[in-house]
Amino acid sequence: MDFLQAQETLNFMEWILRAVIGFFFMLIVAKLIGQRAISQLRLLDFVIALVVGNIIAHPLSDEHLGMKGAMTTTIVLVVLYTGGLFISLNSTRIGKFLDPDPFPLIKEGEILYKGLKKARISIDYLLAELRKEKIEDVKKVALALWESDGKLSIFLDPQYEAITLSTFQMTTKPFDLPQTVIREGKIVHHTLEEKNKDEGWLVDTLMQTHQTGIRNVLLATIDGENNLRVFFYK
Length: 234
Prior knowledge:
The protein is of the alpha+beta class. It folds into three domains: 97 residues, no CATH class; 58 residues, CRO Repressor (2-Layer Sandwich); 54 residues, 2-Layer Sandwich (CRO Repressor). Helices cover 45% and strands 15% of the residues. Strands 2-1-3-4 form a four-stranded antiparallel β-sheet. Helix 1 crosses helix 2 and helix 3 crosses helix 4. It is flat, with a radius of gyration of 28 Å.
């Protein structure tokens, strides 16, 4: 296995073998360091992002390094990454290794110490995550799951959930996302067209409601009932 040692040159097959070994080595390392360290990324995504970035960076910044090895290695890694995704979708066992099932850290208001050890996080970290969700008491949590992306999914006990209109079976208006009609003193014409309005209507409305012109508006939005909300330069 001389190709693992420092070499003056490597042939095509040696570059491929290096890439394969490096890929699986990083996969094992990432698995060992735990999901918290690679939070927000799946295992395969973390490995490919870390390795490919470093491979391409070196030959681009060093005129003494050729691109052949870097390009060969990158292609091999992309093939391995794509193959890993395909296998994980078709193999339950491998899929659970690469993207494991969530497991509980809190259940019915009680902290599960074994879960903390498995996730490799401290009680302080757990409490900090609860505070981010505006939860000050562990007893209010019915279930908290540690997800495969290193994040916490929290479900409150029903008695502590926020009261909504649906709780009282009250009807509400459908959700309506206001659209930008003026941005930094310029009209967004396609929004006017969608609302079946023209520039004259916009100018008249601004003058009637705010006694100002379009150039003085930082942002203006229009809702489903054609109401304008206007923000000025400050």
